[in-house]
C-alpha cells in the first residue's frame, strides 16, 4: 500500500517503521539501536502512526517513555502524522496507553489491586516520603543516635533502592557501592525488613515497589498472559536506561517477543546510579528465539557536523560501545565554543548575554537551553535570569511538590484516602494546634486497624488543645465527596493554617489554587496523586508549577532530564573536572564511563550552536563528601586535547560600562595557587 506519510524517513528508518506489519500476525521483536539524533524517536512515532493507519486498535498499543513529557510529545507527533495520512487524527494521546514504566505499573497494580493482595487505596510515596518513613522506622529501632553515626535516612534509602533494583544481595551492594556502610550490614538488614513490613501495614508502595510488585505479579504466567494480552504492540523509547526489573516485566508481557519494539542508544546510558543496566539493550536480541531483528541508523539529522565531530571525540574515548559514529550533512562554520571565565557568576553573565543577543538575532528563548549536571549548579544562572527578567522553566529541578504547602495539601488528600499512611498522617496531624509528634503517633496508633477511608477518625479522642479545629479535620477526613470536589474540601480545611505557618501565605495560597486547577484535569484522586508523585510539573521562574503558556521562555535542565530533547542552541555549565566527571563519579571505571556518556548526551542536544562553560574557580557544593569548597578547575578530561584546536577558547571579562571604572581582576595563576596551597 502507498505510505506517503513515511516519505520523510530514510530507508533504514522506513524499514524499522514498517517492520513486520505486512500480515495479520504480530511483528516479531525488533531492536533499533543508534546514536543521538539519528531519528529513533521520530521513527517510533511513524511506526505507531503506521500501525494506526493500517488498522491497529489504539487501545491495544502501549508506549513507554522516560517521562510524561516525552510520552505526550510522541503521541502529539503520532497525531500529526495520522492526521496528514487520514484526514482526521487518531486520538493517540487519549486512546493509546502511554507513560513511564512506573506510571503504567501503578495503573495496573491499582486496577488489579484486590486480586494481587493490595488494597486499591494504596498511597504512593515519593523519595522524600520514603526517606521520612525510613527515618520513622530507624528511630523506632533506636538505630539513629548521634553516637552511633548510623547512615543517614537518605543513604539508607539509596542502599535499599540499589539492592531492590539490581536484585543483588545486600552485602554485594554495600561492598561495591557503599563500602563505608559495610560495618552496618546486620543493622541495615533489620532496618530494611522492618521498613518493608511498615509499608505493608501502612498500605503504601514506594517508587521501587511499583516495579518490584509489577515484576512479582508477572511471575504468575496466567496473570502475565492476562496483562500482556491487553496489548498487541508494546513500544519503548530510551531502552538503554531500563533496569533488570523492567526487562523482566517486558519479557513477561510478551514472552515470545512478538509485538515488542525497543529503541535506544547504549552510548546514552546515564542511569546506572539508579541500577539501570545497559546490558538490557545489548542482550535484548538474544532474549528471544529466534533472536530479535536489529536495525541501526547512521545519519544524524539533528546537529551540524562540527558539533557532531566534537561529541564523537568525547564518546570515542569510551571503553565499550556498540553504536557507531554518526554523520551529518549539515555543514557549519560555527564550531562548538569552550568559554573560559573566571567564576561561575561570570559564566552565568556571559551565557545570559549570549542568550539575549541571540534572541535579538531572532532565535527564540524556547530554541535555547542551559544544561547542568545538578540542579544546584543552576543557582547563578537563575539569579542572573531573575535579575534581568528573563522567563524560564526548569526541568528536573526543585519540584513543585517539594514545597511544604503543596506537600501538606497532597498529604491531606492522601490521608483521607488511606488513613494508614503514617508519613502523611504525621505531616497533617502536626498542622493541628497542640499536636506534636507524640500526640500524632498516638492518634495514628489508635487508627491503625481502620483501612477504609474515613473510618474511625470520629472515635479518636480529640487532642487536648486542638479545640474546634479537630472537628474540622475529622469532617475533612470523613466527608465523602466526589472528585475533584475533594481537593476543594481539603484546601478549605488547610487554608487557615497557611497564615499561621508561612509568612508568604498569599503566594502559597495562589499556588494551591493552581494545584486545584490542575487537579480538575484528572479523572480521580488516585490518578492525580499518582501522576504528581511520579512525574511532577516543572518549576518556572514565575511560580513553581504550571508552565508559562504562550510565552517565550528559556529551558534550564539537568542533563538527565534533557534526554531525547533538542534545541538550536545549547549551553553546558561547568565543563570542568569535578563537575563532569563529578568528584563522586571518579570512584570506578564504570562510574567514570557513565560521566563521559553524560557529557555526550548533553552535547548531542544541540542542533546549531554549542557552548561549554569553563569557570576557572568552581564551587563544589553538595556533591563533595568533605563539605563545600572551591576548586581550581581544569577542562573536563573527556574533551581530548587533540580536538581542542577545534574549539575556540574565548577569554571573557565583564564589559566596561561607559563612565564606570572597575578594577580589572588579576588573572588567576592556577599553578601558583596550587603551589601556595601544597607547597
Ligand atoms: P536521541 O538519541 O537524542 O533521543 P533520536 O535518535 O531519538 O535522538 P530524533 O529526536 O527522533 O532522534 O530526531 C532528531 C531530529 O532529527 C529531530 O528534529 C527529527 O525531526 C529529525 N529527523 C529525524 N529523522 C529525520 C529524517 N528522516 N529527515 C529529516 N529529519 C529527521
Ligand atoms: Mg529519542
Labels describing this entry:
single chain, 679 residues, alpha/beta, nine-stranded mixed sheet, six-stranded parallel sheet, 17 strands, 43% helix, disordered C terminus, binds adenosine-5'-triphosphate, binds magnesium ion, hydrolase, ATP-binding, helicase activity, DNA 3'-5' helicase, helicase
Task: Give the class from helix and strand content and strand pairing.
Answer: alpha/beta
- How many strand segments? 17
What is the strand content? 5-15%
Which cofactor or ligand species appear? adenosine-5'-triphosphate, magnesium ion
Query: Which segments are poorly predicted (pLDDT under 50) over 5 or more consecutive residues?
Result: 621-625, 644-679
Instruction: State the shape.
Output: globular
What is the share of helical residues? 40-55%
Average residue pLDDT: 85
- Main sheet: strands, sense, barrel: 9 strands, mixed
> Roughly how many Å apart are the termini?
77 Å
Number of helices: 25
Question: What is the gyration radius calculated from CA atoms?
Answer: 26 Å
Task: Characterize the structure shown.
The protein is α/β, with parallel strands linked by helices and 679 residues long. It contains 25 helices and 17 strands. Helices cover 43% and strands 12% of the residues. The protein starts with 10 loop residues before the first helix and ends with a helix. Magnesium ion binds next to helix 2.
SSE blueprint and pairings:
Blueprint: H1 11-18, E1 30-33, H2 40-53, E2 61-64, H3 68-86, H4 92-95, E3 97-99, H5 101-111, E4 123-125, H6 127-140, H7 153-166, H8 170-177, H9 185-201, E5 204-206, H10 207-218, H11 221-228, E6 233-236, H12 244-253, E7 260-264, H13 279-283, E8 293-295, H14 305-316, E9 337-343, H15 344-360, E10 368-372, H16 379-387, E11 392-395, H17 404-417, H18 422-429, H19 437-447, H20 468-478, H21 485-501, H22 505-519, H23 525-534, E12 539-540, E13 554-558, E14 567-572, H24 589-603, E15 606-620, E16 629-632, E17 648-651, H25 670-678
Parallel strand pairs: 1-7, 1-8, 2-3, 2-6, 4-5, 6-7, 9-15, 9-17, 10-13, 10-14, 11-13, 14-15
Antiparallel strand pairs: 11-12, 15-16
The structure holds adenosine-5'-triphosphate and magnesium ion (MG).
Domain UvrD-like helicase ATP-binding: 13-304
Keywords: ATP-binding, Helicase, Hydrolase, Isomerase, Nucleotide-binding
InterPro entries: DExx_box_DNA_helicase_dom_sf (IPR013986), DNA_helicase_UvrD-like_C (IPR014017), DNA_helicase_UvrD/REP (IPR000212), P-loop_NTPase (IPR027417), UvrD-like_ATP-bd (IPR014016)
Amino acid at each position: 500500500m502507498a505510505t506517503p506519510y513515511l516519505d520523510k524517513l530514510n530507508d533504514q528508518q522506513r524499514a524499522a517503521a514498517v517492520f513486520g506489519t505486512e500480515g495479520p500476525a504480530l511483528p516479531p521483536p525488533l531492536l533499533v539501536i543508534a546514536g543521538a539524533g539519528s531519528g529513533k524517536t521520530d521513527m517510533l512515532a511513524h511506526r505507531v502512526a503506521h500501525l494506526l493507519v493500517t488498522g491497529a486498535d489504539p487501545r491495544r498499543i502501549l508506549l513507554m517513555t522516560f517521562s510524561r513529557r516525552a510520552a505526550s510529545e510522541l503521541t502529539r507527533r503520532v497525531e500529526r502524522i495520522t492526521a496528514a495520512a487520514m484526514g482526521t487524527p487518531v486520538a493517540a494521546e487519549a486512546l493509546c496507553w502511554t507513560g513511564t514504566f512506573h506510571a503504567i505499573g501503578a495503573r495496573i497494580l491499582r486496577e488489579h489491586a484486590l486480586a494481587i493482595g493490595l488494597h486499591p487505596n494504596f498511597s504512593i510515596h515519593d523519595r522524600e516520603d520514603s526517606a521520612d518513613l525510613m527515618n520513622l522506622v530507624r528511630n523506632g529501632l533506636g538505630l539513629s543516635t548521634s553516637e552511633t553515626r548510623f547512615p543517614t535516612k537518605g543513604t539508607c534509602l539509596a542502599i535499599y533502592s540499589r539492592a531492590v533494583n539490581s536484585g543483588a544481595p545486600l552485602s554485594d551492594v554495600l561492598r561495591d557501592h557503599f563500602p563505608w556502610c559495610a560495618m552496618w550490614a546486620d543493622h541495615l538488614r533489620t532496618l530494611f525488613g522492618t521498613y518493608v513490613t511498615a509499608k505493608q501495614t501502612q498500605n503504601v508502595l514506594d517508587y521501587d515497589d511499583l516495579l518490584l510488585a509489577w515484576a512479582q505479579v508477572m511471575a504468575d504466567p496466567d496473570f502475565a498472559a492476562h496483562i500482556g494480552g491487553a496489548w498487541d504492540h508494546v513500544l519503548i523509547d530510551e531502552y538503554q536506561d531500563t533496569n533488570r526489573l523492567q526487562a523482566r516485566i517486558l519479557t513477561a508481557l510478551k514472552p515470545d517477543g512478538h509485538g515488542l519494539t525497543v529503541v535506544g542508544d547504549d552510548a546514552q546510558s546515564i542511569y546506572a546510579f539508579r541500577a539501570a543496566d545497559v546490558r538490557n539493550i545489548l542482550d535484548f536480541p538474544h532474549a528471544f528465539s529466534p533472536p530479535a531483528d536489529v536495525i541501526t541508523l547512521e545519519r544524524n539529522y539533528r546537529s551540524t557536523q562540527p558539533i557532531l565531530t566534537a561529541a564523537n571525540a568525547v564518546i570515542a574515548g569510551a571503553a565499550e560501545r556498540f553504536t557507531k559514529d554518526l554523520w551529518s550533512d549539515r555543514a557549519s562554520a560555527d564550531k562548538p565554543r569552550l568559554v573560559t571565565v573566571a567564576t561561575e557568576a561570570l559564566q552565568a553573565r556571559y551565557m545570559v548575554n549570549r542568550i539575549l543577543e541571540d534572541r535579538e538575532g531572532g532565535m527564540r528563548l524556547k530554541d535555547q537551553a542551559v544544561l547542568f549536571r545538578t540542579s544546584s549548579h543552576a543557582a547563578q544562572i537563575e539569579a542572573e535570569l531573575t535579575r534581568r527578567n528573563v522567563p524560564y522553566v526548569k526541568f528536573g529541578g526543585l519540584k513543585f511538590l517539594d514545597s511544604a504547602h503543596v506537600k501538606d495539601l497532597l498529604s491531606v488528600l492522601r490521608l483521607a484516602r488511606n488513613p494508614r499512611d503514617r508519613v502523611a498522617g504525621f505531616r497533617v496531624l502536626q498542622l493541628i494546634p497542640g499536636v506534636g509528634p507524640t500526640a500524632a503517633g498516638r492518634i495514628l496508633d489508635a487508627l491503625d486497624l481502620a483501612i477504609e477511608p474515613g473510618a474511625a477518625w470520629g472515635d479518636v479522642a480529640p487532642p487536648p488543645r486542638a479545640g474546634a479545629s479537630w472537628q474540622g479535620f475529622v469532617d475533612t477526613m470523613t466527608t465523602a465527596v466526589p472528585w475533584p470536589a475533594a481537593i476543594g474540601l481539603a484546601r478549605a480545611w488547610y487554608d487557615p493554617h497557611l497564615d499561621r505557618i508561612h509568612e508568604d501565605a498569599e503566594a502559597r495560597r495562589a499556588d494551591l489554587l493552581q494545584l486545584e486547577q490542575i487537579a480538575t484535569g484528572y479523572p480521580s484522586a488516585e490518578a492525580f496523586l499518582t501522576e504528581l508523585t511520579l512525574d511532577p510539573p516543572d518549576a518556572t521562574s514565575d511560580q513553581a508549577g504550571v508552565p508559562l503558556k504562550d510565552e517565550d521562555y528559556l529551558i534550564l535542565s539537568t542533563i538527565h532530564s534533557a534526554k531525547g530533547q533538542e534545541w538550536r542552541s545549547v549551553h553546558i555549565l561547568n565543563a570542568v573536572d569535578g563537575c563532569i566527571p563529578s568528584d563522586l563519579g571518579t570512584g570506578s571505571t564504570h562510574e567514570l564511563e557513565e560521566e563521559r556518556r553524560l557529557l555526550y548526551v548533553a552535547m548531542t542536544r544541540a542542533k546549531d550552536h554549542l557552548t561549554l562553560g569553563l569557570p576557572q574557580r568552581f564551587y563544589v557544593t553538595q556533591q563533595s563528601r568533605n563539605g563545600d569548597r572551591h576548586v581550581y578547575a581544569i577542562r573536563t578530561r573527556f574533551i581530548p586535547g587533540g580536538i581542542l584546536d577545534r574549539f575556540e577558547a574565548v577569554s571573557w571579562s565583564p564589559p566596561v560600562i561607559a563612565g564606570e571604572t572597575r578594577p580589572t581582576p588579576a588573572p588567576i595563576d592556577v599553578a601558583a595557587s596550587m603551589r601556595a596551597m601544597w607547597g
